Amino acid sequence: MGLEKFALVMFLGYISLPVLCEVNRYVYSIEKANYTRLCRTKSILTVNGQFPGPTLYAHHGDTVVVRVLNRADQNITLHWHGVKQPRNPWSDGPAYITQCPIKPGAEFTYKLVFSNEEGTVWWHAHSDWARATVHGAIVIYPKPGSSFPFFRPDEHLPVILGEWWKRDVNDVLTEMLQTGGAPNVSDAFTINGQPGDLYPCSKGGKIMSLIVIAVENGKRYLLHVVNAALNEELFFSIAGHPVTVVGVDGTYTKPFPTDYIMITPGQTMDLLLEANQCSSTAYYMAARAYSSSAAVPFDNTTATAVLEYAGSDSGSSRASPLFPGTLPAYNNTGAVANFTAGLRSLANADHPSDFPLTIDSHVVITVSINELPCPRDTCEGPNGTRIAASLNNISFVTPQVDILTAYYRRIGGVFATGFPSRPPLLFNFTADDLPSELLLPRKGTEVRLIEYNTSVEVVFQGTNLVAGLNHPMHLHGYSFYVVGWGFGNYDREKDTPLYNLVDPPMMNTFGVPRNGWAAVRFRALNPGVWFMHCHLERHMTWGMDAVFIVKNGESPEAQMLPPPPDMPPC
Ligand SMILES: *[C@@H]1O[C@H](CO)[C@@H](O)[C@H](O)[C@H]1NC(C)=O
Ligand SMILES: *[C@@H]1O[C@H](CO)[C@@H](O)[C@H](O)[C@H]1NC(C)=O
Ligand SMILES: *[C@@H]1O[C@H](CO)[C@@H](O)[C@H](O)[C@H]1NC(C)=O
Ligand SMILES: *[C@@H]1O[C@H](CO)[C@@H](O)[C@H](O)[C@H]1NC(C)=O
Ligand SMILES: *[C@@H]1O[C@H](CO)[C@@H](O)[C@H](O)[C@H]1NC(C)=O
Ligand SMILES: *[C@@H]1O[C@H](CO)[C@@H](O)[C@H](O)[C@H]1NC(C)=O
Ligand SMILES: *[C@@H]1O[C@H](CO)[C@@H](O)[C@H](O)[C@H]1NC(C)=O
Ligand SMILES: *[C@@H]1O[C@H](CO)[C@@H](O)[C@H](O)[C@H]1NC(C)=O
Ligand SMILES: *[C@@H]1O[C@H](CO)[C@@H](O)[C@H](O)[C@H]1NC(C)=O
Ligand SMILES: *[C@@H]1O[C@H](CO)[C@@H](O)[C@H](O)[C@H]1NC(C)=O
Ligand SMILES: [Cu+2]
């Protein structure tokens, strides 16, 4: 493992950006547009004054030191999503799980220990809903001297998909918590920080909202795609350009040619793009929601950016770019299933798949939306209730001191160790009508203790309580192999023989199908306190979370590192 270290400084502060304006829709031709109406601006929290935040570049096996200065007036933590941080949960970041927040004016130095990650992972805030604007890509090159398992790209292009509210995202969160109902859906999606020209927006008479990416005919680009949206899974495609998926969640995959991708919040994908189209035309890339449940409102808008070939006629008479005809409809679950089935690990000598074949610990976890009673039924959830969410019927309560410190220093009363290995009640999880006595969850801060070097299989079972939908489940500290998934109720006898035990994809976030299940496997070789949660932000806030504590092993290399001296106090 390389021990090259370099330091980066990230400061948290605010910048002003235009709100989406209510002016007429404008056309792609930038020169022609002339809007005099100024946008209202809003202030957003950013890193180093950039939105999206800076892309970090590293090589396989590097250690990167990041000094984070909080110059904002709110608490913050940063998470390095997909970086396994061997033995070093202290730098993982989720607030009140592995650290107390960095308070306004304070600082904390994170140590990012890259091990086997390759391709794309990302970083984002992990406190409140700050990650809406505090995020960026992490691009990991092969070790110096080694090569990509596919042809060498000529250029790297981060493509960060985001979600935008006209209002301050803190207001959206506060309102959700006050009313007990669903949060407002967003007003726009963004590609590299801009919504594109299907939304009305201008600033000072100039169009600010369309990203134009220049490409050259004959070149090969590696797109580092991140879904940084809070609450929506997204389809993404590029007109006239099928892409080849070569990596997902920081692991290279078998090359998978496709016309579109579906990427959940939390996931990252490496896409090879060959610029081989007609050089006098421009092509849209577009992103819009995949909505898995007709019962759940979603943002029904489309973000665009433009691929423009060098040498195209960039005069004012330029025609509109081609729109991708291959972007699936918002409700096309078949397209999601087909895409997901195409993701497979390399499983070769250079990139072996080392998933466990025998299982020591088999855990089944129901993933549910719930309802809590609300005084006089005045909340805005169904029937006047307050919406909640749970794993195995436990709606996670965030503690006031971080679980990692409590575990390490043996401070009692912060968490309990009763997270069950089975759903407390067996019922037809995916039935259309479920009795209302099942809707109420239990509240608690329950962790599951795992012995070092246990081989674990977790089966996530979606339920149809309140509303079944696709849940992107994310585990910190590990990547897991997705050995199986399907619709309906998981049946161990029937489903295990159908697992992919040849080349299952290695991921850290997987969309558990609506009213379906997913089985993932990992070997517990990374001691620490690791958060596991749905990566839809509203579900995480509602309690769709749990914590795995992987205990130390015997040898010194199998033990958690001690905390750094500058851990923020609570
Ligand atoms: C934009 O419109 C304003 C008002 O209609 C006009 O005064 C100005 O000359 C226009 N600018 C350009 C660059 O066309
Ligand atoms: C949410 O949407 C409602 C209805 O459109 C609106 O009245 C309210 O102001 C919005 N709240 C926020 C925080 O955006
Ligand atoms: C989404 O928007 C399109 C275009 O505005 C509209 O035709 C369609 O009905 C909308 N669909 C949903 C589910 O809201
Ligand atoms: C998707 O929604 C459209 C209406 O917006 C409907 O006609 C179609 O049947 C739906 N498809 C699926 C697969 O649900
Ligand atoms: C999924 O793939 C199958 C087999 O290639 C194809 O027949 C089907 O049309 C695809 N479904 C969608 C929604 O793309
Ligand atoms: C609301 O209450 C009615 C009557 O008790 C019940 O039939 C319905 O299932 C409830 N809906 C939800 C979403 O809880
Ligand atoms: C569970 O509910 C689904 C959806 O209504 C139904 O198709 C299935 O037959 C039910 N399964 C059992 C075992 O009752
Ligand atoms: C969850 O726990 C609550 C409280 O113990 C209970 O009333 C409810 O039936 C349970 N629901 C499920 C689905 O286990
Ligand atoms: C983990 O356990 C397996 C046997 O189950 C053993 O072969 C392997 O060496 C162990 N690995 C470590 C790092 O302890
Ligand atoms: C910020 O974090 C500190 C330490 O955990 C906590 O005491 C304080 O309440 C937090 N402030 C806010 C506004 O959440
Ligand atoms: Cu969810």
Mean pLDDT rating: 92
Tell me the overall shape. Answer: globular
Q: How far apart lie the N and C ends? A: 34 Å
Annotation, overall tally of beta strands: 32
Q: What is the CATH homology-level superfamily of the largest domain?
A: Cupredoxins -  blue copper proteins
Low-confidence stretches: 22-38, 202-207
Walk me through what this model shows.
The chain folds into three domains: 1-147, Cupredoxins -  blue copper proteins (Immunoglobulin-like, Sandwich), CATH 2.60.40.420; 150-344, Cupredoxins -  blue copper proteins (Immunoglobulin-like); 361-558, Immunoglobulin-like (Sandwich). Helix content is 6%, strand content 36%. Residues 22-38 and 202-207 have low confidence and may be disordered. The longest helix is centred in the first third of the chain and has 11 residues, at 169-179. It has five helices and 32 strands. The strands form seven sheets. Strands 10-9-12-17-14-15 form a six-stranded mixed β-sheet, with no helix packed on it. Strands 21-20-25-30-27-28 form a six-stranded mixed β-sheet. The protein has 570 residues and is mostly beta strands. The structure holds 2-acetamido-2-deoxy-beta-D-glucopyranose (NAG) (10 copies) and copper (II) ion (CU). One 2-acetamido-2-deoxy-beta-D-glucopyranose binds next to loops.
